[in-house]
Specification:
Blueprint (H helix, E strand, L loop, with lengths): L1 E5 L6 H7 L3 E5 L4 E7 L7 E8 L3 E15 L2 E7 L3 H15 L3
Antiparallel strand pairs: 1-5, 2-3, 3-4, 4-5, 5-6
Amino acid sequence: MRLALKIPDNINVNDFFRKCGYAVIFAKEKRSVSYVKRLTGNYYPRIHIYVRKTAANMIIDIHLDQKKVKFKDKIIHAGDYGGGLLESEAAKIKNNLKKYK
């Protein structure tokens, strides 16, 4: 699921997602930052968010990581990109963003 949200000037993206309950993760191999929210006490399942900022918007790619899958020594992705859980999470993010306006 992809969202394009208008972001206020006073927002710090890392702080915003922490306040939404996400942890920041840094992928060394990709040199990128993303955000995860665990749904249980285990590493998976988790909601995973990638953020890209444009001049006026924050583009959010959100998906549900079901599990880490290894296939012939390569890690592949097992995720869902739609559904009620992600729609609910997107609504929460939008509501939290309203607090900054």
